[in-house]
Design brief:
about 30% helix; single chain; 5-stranded antiparallel β-sheet; alpha/beta; about 20% strand; 5-stranded mixed β-sheet; globular; 14 helices
Length: about 525
Amino acid sequence: MHRRLFPRALAVLALVATAAAAGTTTATAEAPTPGQTRLNATIDAVLADSRLNGAQAGVVVVDTATGRTLYDRNGTRRLIPASNTKLLTSAAAMELLGPGHRFTTEVSADGPRRAGMLSGDLYLRGGGDPTILAADYDRIAEQVAAAGVRVVAGDLIADDTRYDKGRLGPDWTWDDEPYYYAAQVSALTVAPDTDYDAGTVIVHAAPGSRAGARPKITMTPDNGWLRIDNRAETVADGETTISFEREHGGNTVVVTGQIAVGQAAESDWVTVWEPTGYAADVFRSALRRHGVRVLGRTVLGTATPDTAKPLARHDSMPLADLMVPFLKLSNNGHAEVLTKELGRQLSGSGTWAAGLSAISGYVGDAGVDTGTLRQRDGSGLSRRNLVPPAQFVTLLSAVRAEPWFDTWYAALPVAGNPDRFVGGTLRSRMGGTAAANNVHAKTGSLTGASALSGYVTDADGRLLAFSIVLNNYLTSSVKGLEDQIAIALASYTEKETATARRTVPAAPESPRVPEGRECSWVKPALC
């Protein structure tokens, strides 16, 4: 028996044995209980909301202990899942790469060394680390200096060959390109802060000292890869309207608008064009700070030769820890790097195609009918991704048998928990309800597409797996409807109580998605 199927097979046998011991029959199992009838009426009422007029809705709820389907509306319909796609990617990564997997960034020297002089090239080889910071490059440079290198006579070679040259998903829309959630993917990159949005720079605009002066522009991390074209103005008073736009095909960021004297600085994440060069620029500056001079050029995209001797390295956090910023903050870049890393590890090809094949293989082993879905990227940014809600529920039920499940479950956003790295993209939703600190689920948002899939413990202590996927609505947000369903599931009971008889639970107000932006509102609010 395939090793990944074995624990699930045991779980199925256990379910059968339990049902047999209880004298359960198939007919009895399928007969709706009074509680299930109430639950169905509640969810039907939520889905009858006028905001879904003309839209498509798929909702499936399953009791994970028995496998009983409690609700199914269009469960086999293929819908755009947005970031719920990350459930497929993250589960496959945990199984196929392993919770202990790390990304390694290395520096090697090719050429003779004598009296502090390297008569050859210095190679910076990327291992795909999406969490590497400027401070990490500084520590790597410190190791190079500690190894005795003072002058590099040759070039600094930035080796990003672990993955292919495909920087952007083939289906991503052109107008997403400047925004942090659509950063270019490279095996060699930089993240500006501990949100770990690799391939981006945070640009800050502070007011000048007087009205009429240009605002002061700074960047995190400081770098020479981006160029600032500052067209903004400091005003005596008035509304702040600062905007940062990177021009297509280059690294010029145009700053426009106004900011008043005495106002707090405005900041935004901006993607870079060619993150390999960005990483090389940050590392070269770090070398300079540690007294290492590179006399040659910076060359991008050349592989490190086998003859090169290692000088320094940096290992990322283990994948188990990476799951937290990845899933809590719905980090698209992490999903795409993991997809290419899966391809590299399993087939020697760091491409989307190879990685997606690996994901499909794993989720298929888990019982997902891969013939019913289409996955085009790791993150869900592509609108060509199509997944039936029932297949998400199949995956959610199956992975409970995996040894890494507890780590993965804890990394999912938790409803109503204000801690950013606990509640994540659900931190401002369902607070003060039965779903708060109960629902563990992945959010998903594109314009006209919204999803919420995960787990909830009902009022009788059963762990339910659910998937809600809503498409083709015209209103700004349907998050409140997802929340109403999740709250209803958290309140679900077979006991006859006043709470159980209530038809549609109220849901706290949820964040709204601005039209025309694919989840760019995640910072600082969360989707």
